[in-house]
Amino acid sequence: MTINLEDLTLKQIRELAALTAGLHAGMSLSPPTPEPYPFASGAIVCVETIMPTFVGILEYVTATTIVLRDASWIPSTGRYSAFASGAEPEEVEPLPVGFYAIERSSVIGVRLHKNQLRVLK
Predict the structure, then answer these.
(1) Long-range residue pairs from 24-33, CB within 8 A, at least 24 positions apart, any chain
(2) Cα–Cα distance list, 67 to 14, 21, 48, 85, 91 (Å)
(3) Which pLDDT band, with edges at 50, 70 and 90, does 30 fall under?
(4) DSSP class of 33
(5) Which one of 6, 40, 41, 90 is CB 3.0 to 4.6 Å from 76, fit for a cystine?
(6) Kind and range of the H or E run holding 46
(7) DSSP string covering 84-102, please?
(8) How far apart, in whole angstroms, are the C-alpha atoms of residue 39 and residue 45?
(9) Contact 108/92 with Cβ under 8 angstroms?
(10) pLDDT(47) > 80
């Protein structure tokens, strides 16, 4: 089946654009290649996003995601300076064991963290 591009509607063009967003010539849909990052895989990191904060083991980083393993969501850090220095946060919500991908466009900062925080609090 061939498609005449001149016959496409604006709606169809937008749907095609959404399906291929982020793809460019030579790019495939195969698993992403990890990118160099300041922290090594296996490091315990704190990822601060535009809303929540996460702590977990850094698995890998791609152009679009930061992937953590065995992460926890930190709804409330308490005093931030104390939390950043290693104090326990006010609240901890462990995510299911496994991998958790965070969209890099939502990330404000990433830093090393002293402990993994896997206990519900």
Answers:
(1) 32/62, 32/63, 32/64, 32/65, 33/62
(2) 30, 21, 13, 23, 22
(3) low
(4) P
(5) 90
(6) strand 44-49
(7) HTTPPPSEEEEPPSSEEEE
(8) 8
(9) no
(10) yes
CATH 2.30.30.100 correct for 33-121: yes
Which residues fall within 8 angstroms of residue 109, CB to CB, at 6 or more apart? 47, 48
- Please say if the pLDDT value at position 32 is more than 80: no
Sign, Cα dihedral of 106, 114, 43, 111: positive
> Rounded CA gap, 34 and 61, in Å?
5
**DSSP annotation of 63:** S
15: three-class secondary structure by DSSP: helix
Cβ(32)–Cβ(63) under 8 Å? Answer: yes
